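Re: your question about Glutamate-1-semialdehyde 2,1-aminomutase

S., sorry for the slow reply, the queue was backed up all week. Below is exactly what I fed in.
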Amino acid sequence: MNDEQSRDLYDRALSVMPGGVNSAVRAAIEPYPFFVRKGDGGHVIDADGNRYIDWVMGLGPLLLGHDLPESVRAGIQRNASEGPMYGAPSEIEVDLAEFVVRHVPSVEKIRFVNSGTEATTSAVRLARGYTGRNKIVVMQGGYHGAQESTLVEGDADDPAPSSAGIPQSFAEHTLPVPFNDEAAVREVFEEHGDDIAAVLTEPILGNRGIVYPEDGYHEFLREITDEHGALLIFDEVITGFRVGGLGCAQSEFGVTPDLTTFGKIVGGGFPVGAIGGRAEIIEQFAPSGPVFQAGTFSGHPVTMAAGLETLQFAAENGVYDHVNGLGEQLRSGLTEILADQAPSYTVTGTDSMFKVIFTRDGPGANSLEEQCSSGCRQRPACPRYDTCPKNGADVAAAETDRWRRIFWGQMKDQGVFLSQNQFECQFVSYAHTDEDVEKTLEAYKEAL
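Result:
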């Protein structure tokens, strides 16, 4: 597979951009990433003309794939043709806000921003402003964007910045606990309950290989935050409008948080973020309240049009049936392949998300009859239950180097583009087909 153009582009990029990229994960592949020339349905074509089945989908925003349906494209183009932006409100912002409020259980009011990072940053500030408290509980291995309050590692007793440039004093207000660990959450509330503003969690860990919650875990978080007067924030930047359809993951789990952050799909593939929740809390944002939040590009009319057209198309055209059905085919097929070729590995995901975690331990191949059939559900009766990942540390303990250094390249050589490391999700789009699934499963067989 020829990659001369990608190599030359990366050489040029190294001269003008740090690491040759504008987002660190893109350089995860060694010795250099391929550069994309264009998208085509459920595929991408690189600078050298190589074609790949694309399961990255922009790291999640492209629910409909690269070729937008005509009605969606027309709605976006119509708004773009009327001027790029105004520095004043426009009707399309209200239209998209009304759509989200109608469909997402937790959202009574919403504020649009420009990225998932900006959404979670603003949600943390809002939680602190609303409660008058300082500390935030987060899940180890959860990801909430490139922001100071959540780029924290360690545990609740010894939190530390996970990036240079963040003062230790910032990290001291963040309490990391393992996902799915009720005892650890109880402990931090017993010690810090009067100063905990919020628990911030993804409903499903989506940046640590996809880790599903154990039964009752989110209900427990809802109860303990209520008991201590803290807020529960669901970060649905990844799961929003992908897991649970238009109601998002919170509707699938039947747990309503106080605040929800959004990104990716809600902007239809354009830069976006949003914070939604109970009206009395969202009203604390300026200008109606004392928590400052503003942005030149917030509620950008082209992004708002892309988000609204995408979600309306999904609502009216069976998009979720299609993508979730293909996701089920992928995970079921992968489960069968692993049982035969790599029984220690774990299939994870739900709806239109999927991943194979290269877990090091697992049950014997002859004891897999009762395993979860299409993605880990943390089911105690499953023979994998004791060895499947329960939190971010479990995923980090997997064969992450083998995944990146050997497996990823073998899949690429067969024309399949997977996320650039063991941790990122993979996504199905409306543009993918049964044939794409079949070719991908054959590639997994060969690469494993």
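The radius of gyration is 21 Å. The chain has two domains: 4-66+319-447, 70-316.

Happy to talk it through on Thursday.
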